[in-house]
Backbone:
């Protein structure tokens, strides 16, 4: 069994799912956070010697995660329909509890998961825009002079994706490609997107990076690379 | 100079600032409640990030801070936000200041107690338990479920079980009683963490850099922090000599989690094993120091004042 964990509005993940099916991956199920959050039964056991997890969804599908071959993980935000109606404080508590639980569960499946979770994010390590800027400067890139705003991201003009030391997307320069690969290696990211803006002199400036990219931005070449990694 | 971030009257912050005063180590107390007089600005020219903190009409180059101790509370809880004349502007300013502060703390070359990414492992106790196991400690058998029948089966296996929050949000550890069993259907919409009850005595280990200060807690309470409420008697705390190999394991675990200051909760069981419950990345150490006079704030002050990351 192979699982795609993604939000129903994650167009990028759905695109990848369809490609993977077209390329022959069978026994592939999409499971949304809503299905997981409203599951009939969860059982996650952690002890000194082992960790095991099983879930039974409302539709009766029972998944023992020991038997799952691969998981393509795109989980980010967990919003339980039941708790959305609760007072804010209770809703926030439930949100924290559920996120903490899912982190433990996904972490226990580490070797099988594409987009491994970290304590900073269910689908990978989250770095702040200032952290990315700091790392980009240390990698020798020119950066945009404005202070990144975490709440209202500013637009970019070009996006590159690095996956396992290969660059996908529009060509900007060899120097930028090398720096992007170096930066991904340095931060321990297998998959990373980089956005750039051009200044008034036409110079490309590093804008931001993300470990949760729009996977369609790298075209089928990127998806085929991800597919072969996912299978092996 | 050392930068303290938080509320000056909060006990761990107050104890540290008192100790810095005694030692004559210069520091700046950035009081969150005075956020209106503070701002942070960055400059990205020259191939590096430079910054300035303006606070109470003084300016500080961010590179002048060589040590940082942070006990920031959620800025949205600050009473001054609610009292502000222009609430929208105050919220905006406060949010921007905290966003910038959190981001800068992650990248500064200063010694930081502790960075957010390092503290994050404690946001999920069962996740952290999986890391703890790798350092030779046993962990209590833990079940997270939304199924009442599974809880009862788990209880039948272990006899006495407790429940507590999964996340870093503080909860009072409670034994599952007959009365609680009647309410088990409430877990359907949010899985809850249950744990086998471990018998033995509690030891809190504070690791500061490479130094270890251990405290034994004598109490019959399920959660000794609430001993008076749970048993009618306060817990009795005393200094404890930690075996050197256990002390080293605590240092290694703290280092692995990239923390420079931690509060590790251990239980020494009657059969001689040592169970580790969690690693607290922002320990409220003052409770232990007040009861034992162990020099935790002193060690922390010295640690922060030493050069090097």
Residues:
């Amino acid at each position: 069994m192979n699982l795609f964990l993604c939000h129903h509005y994650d167009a990028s993940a759905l695109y990848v799912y369809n490609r993977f099916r077209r390329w022959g991956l069978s026994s592939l199920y999409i499971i949304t956070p809503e299905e997981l959050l409203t599951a009939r039964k969860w059982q996650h056991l952690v002890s000194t010697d082992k960790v095991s997890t099983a879930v039974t969804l409302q539709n009766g599908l029972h998944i023992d995660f020991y038997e799952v071959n691969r998981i393509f993980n795109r989980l980010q935000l967990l919003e339980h329909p039941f708790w959305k109606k609760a007072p804010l404080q209770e809703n926030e508590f439930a949100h924290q509890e559920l996120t903490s639980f899912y982190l433990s569960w996904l972490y226990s499946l580490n070797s099988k998961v594409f987009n491994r979770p970290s304590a900073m994010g269910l689908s990978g390590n989250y770095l702040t825009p200032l952290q990315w800027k700091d790392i980009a400067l240390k990698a020798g890139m020119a950066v945009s002079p404005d202070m990144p705003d975490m709440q209202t991201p500013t637009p970019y003009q070009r996006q590159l994706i690095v996956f396992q030391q290969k660059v996908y997307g529009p060509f900007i320069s060899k120097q930028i490609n090398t720096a992007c690969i170096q930066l991904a290696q340095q931060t321990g990211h297998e998959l990373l997107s980089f956005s750039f803006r051009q200044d008034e002199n036409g110079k490309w400036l590093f804008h931001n990076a993300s470990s949760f990219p729009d996977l369609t931005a790298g075209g089928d070449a990127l998806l085929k690379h991800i597919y072969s990694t996912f299978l092996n | 100079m050392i930068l303290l971030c938080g509320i000056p009257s909060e006990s761990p912050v107050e104890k540290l600032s008192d100790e810095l005063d005694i030692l004559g180590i210069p520091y700046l107390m950035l009081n969150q409640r005075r956020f209106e007089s503070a701002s942070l600005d960055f400059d990205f020219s020259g191939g590096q990030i430079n910054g300035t903190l303006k606070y109470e009409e003084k300016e500080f180059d961010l590179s002048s801070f060589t040590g940082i101790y942070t006990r920031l509370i959620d800025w949205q809880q600050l009473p001054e936000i609610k009292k502000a004349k222009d609430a929208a502007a105050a919220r905006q300013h406060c949010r921007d200041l905290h966003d910038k502060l959190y981001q800068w703390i992650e990248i500064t070359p200063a010694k930081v107690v502790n960075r957010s990414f390092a503290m994050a492992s404690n946001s999920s106790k069962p996740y952290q338990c999986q890391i703890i196991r790798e350092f030779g400690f046993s962990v209590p058998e833990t079940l997270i479920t939304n199924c009442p029948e599974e809880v009862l089966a788990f209880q039948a296996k272990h006899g006495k079980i407790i429940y507590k929050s999964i996340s870093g949000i503080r909860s009072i550890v409670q034994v599952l009683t007959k009365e609680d069993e009647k309410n088990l259907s409430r877990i359907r919409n949010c899985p809850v963490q249950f744990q086998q009850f471990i018998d033995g005595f509690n030891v809190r280990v504070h690791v500061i850099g490479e130094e270890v200060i251990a405290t034994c807690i004598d109490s019959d309470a399920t959660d000794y922090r609430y001993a008076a409420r749970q048993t009618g008697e306060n817990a009795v705390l005393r200094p404890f000599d930690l075996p050197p190999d256990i002390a080293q394991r605590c240092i290694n675990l703290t280092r692995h989690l990239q923390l420079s200051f931690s509060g590790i909760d251990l239980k020494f069981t009657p059969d001689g094993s040592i169970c580790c419950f969690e690693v607290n990345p922002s320990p409220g150490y003052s409770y232990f120091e007040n009861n034992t006079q162990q020099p935790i704030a002193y060690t922390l002050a010295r640690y922060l004042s030493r050069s090097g990351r």
In short: The domain at 2-113 of chain B is CATH 3.40.50 (Rossmann fold). Chain B has three domains: 2-113, 119-124+200-305, 142-196. The longest strand of chain B covers residues 201-208.
